[in-house]
Design brief:
263 residues; 17% helix; binds arginine
């Protein structure tokens, strides 16, 4: 939901990349199809991915994603929750469409935001919600602190969400999913410079772009080998060549998240 404020120093590079991407699109008819949300993805259902939650306002308007990791605990991004009250927030499970009224709506009794969080590009982009009632859906396992091998460059990761279909586009009514390869720290550092903090973040996406999470997907899962390994956090535009999506590196926060889930 929140745009990434690109670093001033990368403005020129960004403009050049965007122009190159536009030129590529013009020259390649097969790539000219309308961008799809979770850009480049396919539609899916909440029953196929029962742990995927909509984070909504009190009037059930979805603005972020989340992952059910225990019947009454949802992992999401800190930047989704900052400034929000429990009473203005709901978690909706089992709902494939943003405009649906099915599934299960839970109130939120507690919002934990990583105490060091200030902004997504500075890291610590993790929050845990405690629900007032349990969700009747299968939970997702999440990475342990020692499972750092899941981020090996090139590993297939699954992204999910109701986010926009392109940078600055509109949200998808139906849940979408796609897979993207994880990106090495050195490669992601060359994309984002010092904004990329390998201790707290991991990148995923194709070098040529085309598939990515986007605005409104934030907080949602990055699943690797069947475990929740990352949280949609930020990126420069969406699906742009040379700018992979940046996800919270959950191994770094696994012990803290475990504490929250057990408290
Ligand atoms: N910050 C965005 C949100 O709040 C997510 C952006 C993800 N961007 C990307 N290129 N992967 O929804």
């Amino acid at each position: 939901m929140f745009g990434f404020n690109r670093a001033k120093k990368s403005l020129v590079a960004v403009a050049a990349t965007a122009a190159a991407a536009a030129a590529t699109l013009l020259g390649a008819p097969s790539a000219a199809a309308a961008p799809q949300p979770v850009v480049g993805g396919t539609t899916t259902t909440a029953s196929a991915y029962p742990y995927v939650m909509q984070i909504t306002t009190a009037s059930q308007s979805q603005f972020c994603g989340g992952t059910l990791v225990a019947p009454d605990k949802v992992v999401t991004a800190a930047h989704c929750m900052v400034g929000r009250s429990t009473s203005s927030t709901r978690v909706v499970g089992g709902r494939t469409y943003r405009n649906g009224s099915d599934g299960t709506v839970a109130q939120v009794s507690r919002i934990w935001i990583h105490p060091s969080y200030t902004s997504a590009t500075r890291g610590y982009d993790v929050a845990v919600l405690t629900l007032s009632s349990s969700m009747p859906y299968t939970t997702a396992p999440y990475v342990s602190a020692s499972q750092t091998g899941v981020y090996a460059a090139g590993t297939t990761a699954r992204i999910l969400g109701w986010g926009t279909t392109s940078s600055g586009g509109s949200s998808s009514n139906q849940l979408r999913t796609a897979t993207v390869p994880t990106v090495s720290d050195s490669s992601c550092s060359s994309s984002y410079g010092s904004s990329y903090k390998a201790s707290d973040m991991v990148c995923a996406g194709y070098a040529s772009g085309g598939v990515d999470t986007c605005q409104g997907d934030s907080g949602g899962p990055l699943m690797i080998n069947g475990v929740l390994a990352g949280i949609v956090s930020w990126g420069n535009g969406c699906a742009w060549a040379g700018y992979p999506g940046v996800y919270t590196r959950l191994t770094t926060f696994s012990d803290l998240v475990t504490q929250q889930i057990n408290s």
